[in-house]
Amino acid sequence: MKVFVTRRIPPEGEAVLAQAGVCSIQQWDSDEPIPQSELLARVAGKDGLLCLLSDRIDKEVLDAAGPTLKVISTLSVGYDHLAIDEIKKRGIRVGYTPDVLTDATAELTVALLLATARRLPESVEEVKNGGWTTWKPLWMCGYGLSGSTVGIIGLGRIGQAIARRLKPFGVKRFLYTGHHPKPEAGAEFGAEFVPLATLAEESDFIIVTCSLTPDTQGMCNRDFFRKMKKTAVFINSSRGAVVNQEDLYDALVKGHIAAAGLDVTSPEPLPPAHPLLSLKNCVILPHIGSATYATRNTMSVLAANNLLAGLKGESMPSELSL
What we know:
By secondary structure, the protein is of the alpha/beta class. It is 35% helix and 14% strand. The protein has helices at 11-20, 36-42, 59-65, 84-89, 102-117, 120-129, 157-166, 183-189, 196-202, 222-227, 245-253, 293-311, and strands at 2-5, 24-27, 48-51, 71-74, 93-95, 149-153, 173-177, 192-193, 205-208, 233-236, 259-262, 282-284. The strands form 2 sheets. Strands 8-7-6-9-10-11-12 form a 7-stranded parallel sheet, with helices on both faces. Strands 2-1-3-4-5 form a 5-stranded parallel sheet. Helix 1 packs parallel to helix 12.
C-alpha cells in the first residue's frame, strides 16, 4: 500500500509510520505547504493520504488520487479543509485528531485573552521604544476578569476547557450559545444558555470556539459587534471565517468594542499589510493554539495511527463520522 504525507510531521508520528512496515511512504519534505501541482501529481494512485489543515483536499485532489484512495488522515481537529461530501460519496474514511489538543488550545486562548485585555504586546512595545517614562495612573490600563461576564460561543471540549481555566480568575457569570443547551457541561460553571444576541449584549469577554459550518461562517459581523459593549474584548481561537474581518476592523477603529485577540484569520497567513495588523487594540497570533511540543507529537502519532488503521480496514482511534 502506498501513502503520501503532505508535509514534514513531528518525529514521533513519522516513527509510527516507518515502523509499521505496512506501507511505502512518500513525503513532501518541507515545512512549507506543497504546491498544488505537486500535490495533484504525488497523490495519484495512493491508498492513503496524511494531510494538514492548510491542505485543501477538494474534488480536484480526490480526482487526481483516483479510486485507490481509501483513507485520509488529517493532522487537525478541524476538517473544513476537506471536501466532505465528495469524500463521503467515494467511500473514503477520514481520521482526525480531536481531544489531544484541547488543553493546549484552551491554555493559548486564555493567554491570548489576558494579553489582549491587559494590553501586554502594546506594553512590551512601549518599554522597547521609550514610551515608558514614569508611572501614570491610567496608562496602559486594560480590563480584568474578576467579577466579569464571559460569553463562550460553542461550549464543546475546548470551550469547556477554557471556562474551567477562567473560573478561578473570579468570573462572575458564564454565558454560552450553540445549537442546543448542554445542561451537564453548563452546570459545572453555572453557565447559562442564551441566544447569540444576548451573549453579545451582556458579555465583557466573548470567546469563539465553535466549528466552522455554513451556519457559523461570518456569524461575527457588523450587527454582532454593534451589540457588544464598548468595553468588551473579543477572542477567536476557532476558525478565521467565523468572523467578518472587515466588520471587526470597523468595530475596533470606531470604538464599538475595546479590543480583539485572534489566533485564527482568513486567509492564513494574514498578509502583513492587512488593516487589522495596524491596530494596537488587535492582537494576532499565527494559529498556534495546539503549538506545544507534546501536543503536536501526540497529534502526529494519532494521525499516523488513524492512517494505518484505515489502510488495514480496522477501527480508527479517532474516525470522523460521515
